[in-house]
Catalase (Bhargavaea cecembensis DSE10), 681 residues
Amino acid sequence: MDKRQDEKNSKDEQLKAFRVDDKGKALTTNQGLKMSEDEFSLKAGVRGPTIMEDFHFREKLTHFDHERIPERVVHARGFAVHGEFQLYKNMKKYTSAKFLQDTSKKTPVFVRFSTVNGSRGSADTARDARGFATKFYTEEGNYDLVANNIPVFFIQDAIKFPDVVHSFKPEPDNDIPQASTAHDTFWDFVANNQESAHMIMWIMSDRAIPRSFRMMEGFGVHAFRFVNDEGKAHFVKFHWKPVLGTHSLVWDEAHKLMGIDPDFHRNDIWNAVEQGFYPEYELGVQILAEEDEFSLGFDILDSTKIWPEEDIPVNIIGKMTLNRNVDNFFAETEQVAFHVGNVVPGIDFTNDPLLQGRLFSYTDTQLIRLGGPNFHEIPINRPVVQFHNNQREGYHRQTINLGKVSYHRNSLAGNTPAPVPPEKGGYATYQEKVEGRKVRARSESFEDHFSQATLFWNSMTNHEKAHIIEAFSFELGKVKSQSVRQQVVDMFANVSVELATAFAVNIGAAPPEEGGSGVTKSSPALSQENTPKSAETRRVAVILTDGFNGPEVNDVLEKLMTSGVVPEIISERIGTVRGTDGVQLKAQHTFLTAKSVMFDAVYMIRGSRQNKKFNKDAAYFIDEAFSHYKPIGATGEGISWLKVNHLEGKPGVISGTDIGAFTEEFVKAIAAHRFWERVLV
């Protein structure tokens, strides 16, 4: 086994050695013993008691009783996909990391997306930050880029991490609410820990309710270091940029999806991969010379701060493609163990106090979740290169180490395993000069809590600002303490008097009389309006009944699919729907199984056969999609539905008899994603 693993150059090939297909096989115990019965326990007489001799019963029940492991304290609800990363440009100038130097090499990756707050059984679309953790299986060992879809964090020092998590988790007296920050303890924490201001702006924005994991950015949050072969270092921040652009749900959609499809994000990415619509993300880096560390007007080691992209551009250096779903959720997604300290030569840490705490916490939490120190031997966590050291024994040890020696320095094994000097690929920590008195304190350079929160607010479009106001109003409207509500209003007056006044009125608090941070700068990169827009992989609900215009609909559907759009038919029943000229289409949904919030757009055709209930359901479906600012298209008899719903001529509503022109305009509308100008209609 060990020798064979040494020869593996693909994580997928390595995992094949651990796959078992039970289909068509004989039933055995875990010891390989074939069993003749699995329906009845062994009894003393037909109506007698089960007897302890029944080893099969004992094994089966004992295993069942121990199947669950503790869920992650945060990021418990996750979903993961396999893929590969390929470099665009050689980064040898900045880093000695080999996977960032060879543009011809494809590095296997495993990516786990997650919500932060909720339990494993919570819904996908809760308002929350999202985890975006990537494990690179490199030739120098595993490198983990443990990122979020928000580039900043609530706190500046890891000693406060338990506090912020305790505050946003369900309140301890009644364990309510699940997967939500709309309660007293969280907002009490925010008001009394004002370093959280910038993160709160992101959480209250559309970024916290992504349309899809495939349409979500990822950020390494911290400042790390690149170190090259000569030992020269640069500060670096990591970014994942989705090729499809960064897009979001609206809050009403997110709420409804929690009940209609709580697995919405899981279904979305699983189905995309199964259909061959492989999610793609480009890796970008912001690089800052060490001599420019203090040139930005804020402390670059403060995890509540971004490096504005207009000041330090994101240099795109490679692309990740996710192309294979997991074979087993528990064995892979649930057992994968990420650690921000899993690095390779050429990537190092900084003195960011939040990062420093994470370097301890990840290993510590895996010990209780995965039952001991050998979690690196679980197949999904194993590097593609063999590991050699003097670590031995412990729970679930799989490696069978040969020889007598398990200590360093030794003569019996020629003093091996032997350290490798840096010039031959051994990891060496960057020799940063560090000195000072031991203190429990924070640098004065970390004291500005509001300027970048204001930068974020200034960068939003009008509809994005409206959504932030609504989010504050909802969250604080759930807070019972009048004192906490007022404290939050007073706090965010330091960000924007306009913002604080708007939500203060909605929650029964006193509006601020003054405030603001004095920041007038904006950053266009922070607004989702400036993201790539594409119709590819967008789901379109196609509403039709028997008697539809067969050739016309066939033509539209063919053109939509050629543009990468995914049409799904809704009709009176699941199965065949018959149109004119012998055209038959398959309906995947009825209005009982599909709702407008599950789709990105609606195309209405209608047909000669319909009933009142179908028409009523269709009218509600269309109205709801319109209220969520989605594109709506209609041809043939479907145009009459636009008239009934008074939607003709409204923004993003496309109709026509020229099928070529209609489809072209409809695809453009689908790519636009939302038509916010309907707010004024």
Remarks:
- Residues 1-8 have pLDDT under 50 and may be disordered.
